[in-house]
């Protein structure tokens, strides 16, 4: 049995490659890197897949950045939408049984809320969320046409060793003593372990459907920062009062308006750090999703 994993050499892809190999599958990776079994830049070309594939896990995509120009916005579309379209063209007539797409809770476009379910409308307005929506549609339509079971995973912040994006920035900030909680860090965010996504994928791929996958415990910024600082042998993270954070955020807004570039801290980022945003994975629990709690399994994600 063969499984094709796009983005298999990346942070999340590595977890999936290791898990599927451990389950006895022959794993083929597809990507731009020299270590990929099938070398292809799918945003610009259709991959040449000469082997029969049983399962596909599509992880490759563009994330962890805010476009600062029209060219960067276009790159999101080229990678996440055109890349998906090219992959599907390369997969036609391969006798595939199941396909998993790693999407994101960003498709909802929600800025706050509690226990958001898969029934929430897709209202993303940013480049990342919008292109994930389009990719989901392409894959769903292709699955119906080709009679392939499609499973779409919408994860929140993914936690694992060497994680990029906001988690990586948070860890670095704590290591350097430059990270502060705001308003006691009470705001909660859904998170999930990369390892759990990989572990669940071998079951999910034959079931199909759309699922939010979270650890179900919804850690606060205070809880996350405390376990990180303890694991890194750093002092407990300090708190910044809300009134001070608002003043600094306004300065950031002014910098963004004048310089036309993202500031280290702004009103938008302040809101992200002071409002709850959690997602429900009750639907996945009904088919066997049993995640581990992130904050009590620090050894799985702190180097």
Structural overview:
- This protein is an alpha/beta fold and 303 residues long.
- It has a domain at 2-160 and 192-215 and 279-293: NAD(P)-binding Rossmann-like Domain (Rossmann fold).
- The protein contains nine helices and 13 strands.
- Strands 3-2-1-4-5-7-11 form a seven-stranded parallel β-sheet. Strands 6-13 form a two-stranded parallel ribbon.
- Strand 4 (55-58), helix 2 and strand 5 (98-102) form a beta-alpha-beta unit.
- The protein is globular and about 60 Å long.
Q: For this structure, what is the CATH class of the domain at 2-160 and 192-215 and 279-293? A: Alpha Beta
Uncertain segments: none
* Most strands sheet: 7 strands, parallel
The number of helical runs is 9
CATH T-level topology of the domain at 2-160 and 192-215 and 279-293: Rossmann fold
Strand order of the largest sheet: 3-2-1-4-5-7-11
Output the radius of gyration.
20 Å
| β-strand amount | 15-25%
CATH architectural label of the domain at 2-160 and 192-215 and 279-293: 3-Layer(aba) Sandwich
Mean pLDDT: 94
According to DSSP, the number of beta strands is 13
Corresponding CATH superfamily of the domain at 2-160 and 192-215 and 279-293? NAD(P)-binding Rossmann-like Domain
Share of helix, binned: 25-40%
Find the structural class using helix and strand composition. Answer: alpha/beta
What spatial form do the alpha-carbon principal axes imply?
Answer: globular
State the order of secondary-structure elements, H for helix, E for strand.
EHEEEHEEHEEHEEHEHEHHEH
């Amino acid at each position: 049995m063969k499984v094709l994993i796009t983005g298999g050499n990346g942070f999340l892809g590595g977890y999936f490659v290791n898990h599927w190999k451990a389950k006895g599958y022959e794993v083929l990776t597809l990507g731009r890197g020299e270590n990929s079994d099938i070398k292809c830049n799918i945003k610009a070309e259709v991959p040449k897949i000469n082997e029969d594939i049983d399962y596909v896990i599509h992880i490759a995509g563009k994330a962890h950045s805010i476009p600062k120009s029209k060219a960067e916005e276009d790159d999101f579309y080229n990678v996440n939408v055109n890349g998906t379209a090219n992959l599907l063209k390369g997969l036609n007539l391969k006798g595939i049984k199941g396909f998993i797409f790693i999407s994101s809770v960003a498709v909802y476009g929600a800025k706050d809320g509690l226990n958001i379910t898969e029934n929430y409308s897709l209202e993303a307005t940013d480049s990342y969320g919008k292109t994930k929506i389009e990719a989901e549609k392409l894959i769903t339509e292709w699955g119906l046409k080709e009679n392939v079971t499609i499973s779409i995973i919408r994860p929140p912040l993914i936690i694992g060793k060497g994680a990029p994006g906001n988690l990586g920035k948070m860890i670095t900030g704590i290591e350097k003593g430059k990270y502060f909680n705001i308003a006691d860090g009470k705001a909660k965010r859904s998170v999930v372990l990369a390892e759990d996504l990989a572990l669940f994928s071998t079951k999910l791929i034959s079931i199909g459907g759309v699922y939010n996958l979270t650890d179900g415990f919804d850690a606060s910024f205070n809880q996350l920062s405390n376990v990180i600082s303890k694991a890194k042998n750093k002092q407990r993270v300090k708190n910044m009062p809300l009134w001070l954070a608002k003043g600094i955020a306004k300065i950031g807004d002014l910098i963004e308006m004048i310089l036309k570039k993202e500031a280290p801290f702004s009103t938008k980022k302040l809101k992200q750090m002071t409002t709850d945003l959690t997602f429900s994975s009750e639907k996945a629990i009904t088919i066997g999703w049993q995640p581990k709690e992130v904050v009590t399994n620090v050894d799985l994600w702190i180097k």
